[in-house]
Design goal:
This protein has 474 residues and is mainly α. 71% of the residues lie in helices and 3% in strands. The protein has a 3-stranded antiparallel β-sheet, with helices on one face. Strand 2 and strand 3 form a beta hairpin.
Length: 474
């Protein structure tokens, strides 16, 4: 037992633990500042949020200690069992959970509440690591990707049923894990293209979006072929075809939109290109053509999908894109958050001196919008320090993941980094108006036991695996 303890103490990454402790301590101080009450000035007052958070922190340290004492083989052996238990809890909360702010995602016993959706993240990460570390897993194989898709879809789908879309979106971060393990860059590029098309389809007319898709396809064509003559021929063909349609429309007074005329010409052009592409076995051109068709087909469906979102989700997207700004309505939180952050200036107003915070102008300032307290009291310098500290912690995890001899540990480590990165980027982004308000916590800073415990377990499982990195599990 002593030998095992000595090995653990020698092999544990103390830099990561110190970074974790520092972030938790700073987060606690900011919760204290966010909800400070002069009538309850003691930071240890358990009747206030900062006192309760101290209890959550103490429990988190106990959880971290228990995880470190657990044999690392337990996590590799029982990954799918842990995942199954969390799926069961996600189903159970739909029937027996307490509804809070429109979301039925909490188990509540007296004053104690716990959110299974937070703990499902580390369980899903374990399941992903288990499946992807199997010898027969091939990241570019359809059946393998389908399996991963199902593992991610099950918890995210159940969380969406709880009306907690923000927590469900966290699972999209696992695409970074797939990319690290060999997923082709074109798939990642396709995801960015899809996001760009979604935004453009909301901002511009269908004709403009189609024109951009065609232009992007032609640029990609030239990038792969480097043949200006072929590019000119294609542009000429499309231009002449569209001009001919315009002439016919004018002569016969046809009620055909410019969008459908251009779409018809592009479809005809694409079809005529299939045979020479197939004959020359140009795989890149085939991929490009398929992506182009997917974009053309997806663009018209964006508005249909947008119309089926919930009203508050539509409002948040409209606010983010500047389509419809209502600073006193749906945009109130973000507007007040930006005012608070901006008022901090270069060096901030000082600890417990934030006026926007004290007068409760910013809703949810101890949870989703905790970063506005950092900006107001610590200023630009302090905010930068916090962002750098979080970035260093994430990069440290990536460095540890790269030194693993076990594929399970490496994949799990990248899952940890991806989840943390998503939370940090989106949470800070939404407080400064750069990301939609989807209601996810800032790791180690936002008030609440479930998020702190889940992040603690997520991280310390990896630190336990890293401590045994010289033992190859698979």
């Amino acid at each position: 037992m002593n030998s095992r303890s000595n090995n653990l103490l020698a092999n544990i990454d103390w830099v990561s633990i110190l970074l974790y402790l520092l972030l938790v301590l700073i987060g606690w101080l900011n919760i204290y500042a966010a909800v400070y009450d002069e009538n309850h000035s003691s930071i240890f007052d358990i009747s206030q949020k900062y006192g309760k958070q101290l209890i959550w922190i103490g429990a988190a340290f106990v959880l971290a200690f228990l995880v470190l004492l657990t044999d690392s083989k337990f996590f590799t052996t029982f990954s799918m069992v842990i995942y199954g238990i969390m799926i069961f809890l996600l189903i159970a909360v739909l029937f027996f959970g307490t509804e809070t702010k429109g979301a039925r995602s909490w188990f509540e016993v007296g004053d104690f509440r716990i959110q299974p959706a937070e703990f499902a993240k580390f369980a899903t990460n374990l399941a992903i690591a288990y499946v992807m570390s199997r010898h027969n897993f091939k990241v570019m194989c359809f059946s393998s990707l389908l399996t991963i898709g199902l593992i991610l879809a099950l918890p995210s789908g159940l969380i969406i049923l709880q009306n907690d879309t923000g927590s469900a979106l966290v699972y999209s971060s696992f695409i970074l894990v797939l990319f690290r393990e060999g997923l082709h860059g074109s798939i990642l590029l396709l995801c960015f293209v899809a996001a760009a098309i979604f935004i453009m389809a909301l901002l511009y007319s269908p004709f403009t979006v189609l024109l951009v898709i065609i232009g992007g396809t032609l640029i990609a064509f030239y990038y792969y072929r480097h043949d200006i003559r072929e590019l000119f021929q294609i542009i000429l063909f499309i231009g002449c075809g569209f001009g001919l349609f315009v002439l016919i429309k004018w002569m016969f007074n046809l009620l055909i939109s410019d969008y459908y005329m251009l779409l018809t010409v592009y479809v005809i052009t694409s079809i005529t290109a299939i045979y020479p592409i197939y004959k020359r076995k140009m795989k890149n051109m085939i991929t490009l053509l398929l992506i182009s068709w997917l974009c053309v087909g997806a663009a018209p469906s964006v508005n249909y999908a947008f119309d089926h979102l919930q009203p508050h989700q539509q409002d948040r997207i409209n606010e983010l894109l500047g389509i419809r700004v209502d600073p006193k309505g749906t945009g109130y939180n973000v507007t007040q958050s930006k005012i608070a952050i901006g008022s901090g200036g270069l060096l901030g107003k000082g600890f417990l001196q934030g006026t926007q915070t004290k007068l409760n102008f910013v809703p949810e300032q101890s949870t989703d919008f905790i970063f506005c307290t950092v900006g107001e009291e610590w200023g630009f310098v302090g905010s930068t320090f916090i962002i750098v500290l979080l970035a260093v912690f994430i990069l440290r995890i990536i460095k540890l993941a790269e030194r693993q001899r076990s594929s399970f540990s490496r994949i799990y480590g990248y899952g940890v980094a991806s989840i943390l990165f998503f939370h940090v980027a989106v949470n800070i982004g939404m407080t400064i108006g750069m990301a939609p308000v989807i209601g996810i916590p800032l790791p180690f800073f936002s008030y609440g036991g479930s998020s702190l415990w889940s992040f603690t377990i997520l991280i310390f499982i990896f630190l336990r695996l890293d401590a045994n990195r010289l033992q190859v599990f698979r």
